[in-house]
Amino acid sequence: MNTRGKRIEASTRKPEWRCVASKTVGDGKKARNGKMLQYSRFVLFPLLRGQGETIGFALRRALLGEVEGTYITRARFVNVNPENSRPHEFSMLFGMQEPMQEILHNLQEICLRGNLHGTHDAFILVRGPKLVTAKDIILPPFVEVIDAEHFIATVVKPIDLHIELKIERCRGGYRDREADSAYYEDGGFDIYGFFSPVQGMNHGVYSFQGENKEILFLEIWTDGSLTPREVFREASRKLIDFFSLALNEEGTKQKKDTEDPKEEETEESEEKEGLGFDRLKDAQNPSHPCQHLAPLISLLRELGGREGALKCVTLDQFPFTRGTYLCLQRYEILTLWDFLKLTDKDFARIRIPLSVREYALVWEFLEMYSLFVDEPSGWS
């Protein structure tokens, strides 16, 4: 009797999260390349079979890709060379022991904590000889350095080191380097790399109270700018926000089903007028195969005009033959904008196998949504 009661209690028990371990891991003494990490271990139990992997993978993506942190994203060195030559990423600065690349890497690894919006300025103003660390950074009042002894550079000569920094919040992931010719013109360098408070994450699923129950173990390592508890709550909130969009949409749909049909028609007409449906000539050819693009075309025209809509509508939306698709892709003609830029010489050179019906479909589509910017050259 008592055993049966315990089984019923275990089967109806609601899942709960618990933090079973928290500690700081590292080499004990912060060296130049050393890192002190905060570690926590969480468990979720009991779960039905298969639920552990579902929750674990979802939290993994949210932890590594959605949590924001505060980091240095740009550095500009002022008066670094007496010859006024423009420095590059691999150059040696006058009076400095470390090369530019190593200094930028040390700046990228600095852990900051602060709740800020947008981009903010920070500075380093020191007089050598001096060992420059993170405590020498002049930060905004709402930003603080986690490790003030973090090494940045060594000034070996009696010079003034002036570095202008940009600080902003970055979402987890790699920040790509900008491929721009003006990248070095002002003496500044964008700092690119992996910007995330979460330095590591691991999860495991094990059997719990029999074959039909599971327990999920979740391990999180952070750089100290946020604690594992904070990033765990932030990742969970991100997932809830994503799925709440679908729930809100379903609730709105159920609310519309209970409303008066006449009121619904009035709201739909007002919504279409707001999106620009009054400018669309859908009634001309309601059986056009690209009729489903009407809402998208209207929105694109609102945001980027005719040219923006033409650049976003791809030719794979049209029922062309396979030979036509392959020919267009071979010459990188992928959008309506690319297609309308073709001249008569281009049509003769490329020899696109477009039939009369396929020409007519493109023409009707452009005329239906008034997307002609200029007179198309290929329709003579």
TrEMBL record:
CDD domains: RNAP_alpha_NTD. One of its GO terms (biological process) is DNA-templated transcription. The keyword Chloroplast applies. Keywords: Chloroplast, DNA-directed RNA polymerase, Plastid, Transcription. InterPro entries: DNA-dir_RNA_pol_insert, DNA-dir_RNA_pol_RpoA/D/Rpb3, RBP11-like, RNApol_insert_sf. One of its GO terms (cellular component) is DNA-directed RNA polymerase complex. Residues 39-249 form the DNA-directed RNA polymerase RpoA/D/Rpb3-type domain. GO terms for molecular function: DNA-directed RNA polymerase activity; protein dimerization activity. Residues 260-271 have a biased composition (Acidic residues). Residues 252-276 are annotated as: Disordered. This is RpoA. It comes from Cananga odorata.
